[in-house]
Amino acid sequence: MELLAPAGNLPTLKAVVLAGADAVYFGGTSFSARAYADNLSTEEAEEGIKYAHVYGKKAYLAVNTLLKNREIEGALYDFMKRYADAGIDAVIVQDMGVLSFLRAYFPDLPIHASTQMTVTLADGAAFLKRLGVARLVTARELSLDEIADIKKKTGIEIETFVHGALCMGYSGQCLMSSMIGGRSGNRGRCAQPCRLPYRLLEEDGTFAKMPGEYLLSLKDLCGIERIAQLAEAGVDSLKIEGRMKQSGYAAGVVRLYRKYLDAAEEGDALPLAEEDRRILLDLGSRQGFTDAYFSRRNGGDMMSYQSPSHEKKQTQQAAQEDEQKKIPVRMAFTAKIQEKIRLRVSSGGREAEVFGAAVEKAKKEPTSREGVEAKLRQTGQTAFFVEELLIDMDDGCFLPVSQIRELRRRAMDALWEAMAAQKEAGTILPFAPLIKKQRTGTKRPTDFFALCRTKEQFMICLNEDALTTVGLALEAVLEQAWAFSWEQAEEQLETSRRLAKAAGKRFCLAMPLILRKHTADLLEDGREWFRSLGDDVILCSNYDTLGFLDRLGVPSEKLLPDHRLYTFSERAMEAFFDMGYPSLCAPLELNRKELAHRDNGSSYLLLYGRIPLMLTANCQRKNSRGCDRVTSVCELVDRRGEKFPVKNVCLFCYNEIYNSRILQLFTEKREIEALGFGGFRLDFTLENGGETAQVLQRMRKTFLSAETDKEPDVSCCTFTKGHFHRGVE
Asked: CATH second-level architecture of 447-610+660-720?
């Protein structure tokens, strides 16, 4: 297995290579999910790539943020071309637009799907593999069995995090920092609100007695004792988190993982020595370590309730530094009178040859063979040492010492460059601006779409004449069921569809926000139902659902990618359209000016809804009172008194943490109508029947009458306009 290490700067890159990493990953000055790391300038990155290649290691570039139009069309090509020319070995991406862009202009460059693409299922991995993804960075929430299933069914390269900080939410699905503070995790600027204190207000109005106040702060991951099991599961690369960490941390962690990985691969898996465990703790952790989700779904023992801080000790063992590892070189030196001196050097299958001045016959004392050898072996601060030296020189030669030294220096430099260029430059096609395809077909009337999370909401929406599409979430269809058979689901789904048809509405089934194997297995028997949708559609929030339904044979024109399948750019939109999806949902982090640059005729805009800020595998209800498999709503109360509802969706075993304020854009009617959206969407979550009816009335008055804009007369909550005006950096 590959040992993959983080590098927040050039000294750290060199340190982890010397400590034993097989590959390094880093961000550049733009487009990295660690915007606040030092990151490497392009010049530093070019040096770092060469350094890694000389030592036989690989270097991966993180371009794992969501990019806006002006970034993709205006800056990405020149940015990527320098890295491609420098021999970068792969690029880590989150954005479908970036993936499409790289396939178009850098077709030979391997693409690794970031953990922020939130893939938890073999179907999602297969979906991305068909699009040209070479490696999947699995979601951190996966068990060893789930990882093994992905590997077995797809054969895709698997990269899995084994050490470092853990996000509380599924990576790529978290909008908490963005919506609360305007710093988007999807743009590399997460403010880490999960490391702040919260209290848990239960349904009965009392505060739960918890072990501490940091209810969203996970311990750091340590999987060093799972190396053999990860290998058995088919993991190809063990990934260490830490691009924000100092060089000593990264190198120290790599050093220990190298030791235990080597032992495991030699068939002699070592138990973790107490001394090594102590070194890892000294390097840094949050109240100790957890092996996270490798063998469990969740649990309070994974939490660092008392402190969210990454604590370390500057012990001598933890601060150990690695000496530069010298690379063996073979030298062949030739000096013939009246011919140019020549030095050929080789290492690792690469060689270089340099020439000096013509050799003169000595007028006095000739240069000795021993003297030449001594000067050639003085490789000093270079990465090389002379392992073998062959000298072929005439007797009576005079060779100035300065010439020998200069010849050696040039030979070492040439060999360095030859070894640094081990990866041949792939195809790079000239950049051309995106040409949007003309879409045929008649313009449909604006679609007003309501998505419901309860049957009460659904029945009220069916009676609203202004709505053309009414959706129901799968967990609402099955209500409080912990597990289900397809027969149960199909009966209730058909009832919901018949009710929608009777009301003259199109029916939409909303699939889970996260689709895990235990749910997908239960839905397998629904192949025929999913394939016979007629005019109805399915709302899909993740690549796993797209891949799952594709495998079942559901036509892509029956699927509606949700706003969590981000389309920040025209490239991303075109990529989804090219795959056959006729409609999209606009991302929630674009402002009105950025939305105006999209072709919105085939997109929905969310007008109203309580946005899930975070989806978590860990469960607040279970952590406070134990798992009783009862879906409920509690609240996280922050230090300012803001209350964030938390719903435990037991059917799919995840928590949804909602914003304290509901998004509503009714008052922005004039600007919204100018954006040309093909549909508008209302998401109902925790509203009761009366509140649902109030929202529908407000929508009808605002968008289907001549009334002027005013504040909505809905009493259920305080409101936010989200990013409609402010956007994210």
From this structure: Alpha-Beta Barrel (3.20)
